[in-house]
Design brief:
The chain is built from 2 helices and 9 strands. A hairpin with a 2-residue loop joins strand 7 and strand 8. The chain has one domain. The two termini are about 25 Å apart. The protein is mainly beta.
Length: about 120
Amino acid sequence: MPYLEHYITVGDVKCKHGSLYIFCRRCKECWTKPIWLLDSSALSHFCFDLNDFIEYQKYKPYERTLVTTATHTIYMKGKGAVLLKHKVNSKTVRTCLEHVLYVLQIATRLLSIGQFLL
């Protein structure tokens, strides 16, 4: 189960390799455990690892949605629920995120700040 410990706000931030942070595979290789990043510009939660999902519904080819960022077009493969383990007031709790989109093209798990405000 992913553990929510480290987070940064991304958007169109470039990494040390000169790529957009959410697409950089070299940055992903440096991480030792799953990391979720808070993103104030993401419209949904996104995950690239199917193993993170506790429930998953694969989209049919005609249901796949594409999203265009400033420099990339990405396709949603499906959606589901992810269980996160994190700390609240020094206690470890679990939170189930629903409607997390499965996207292979990204290298970062993204949490949408906007989705938490709905």
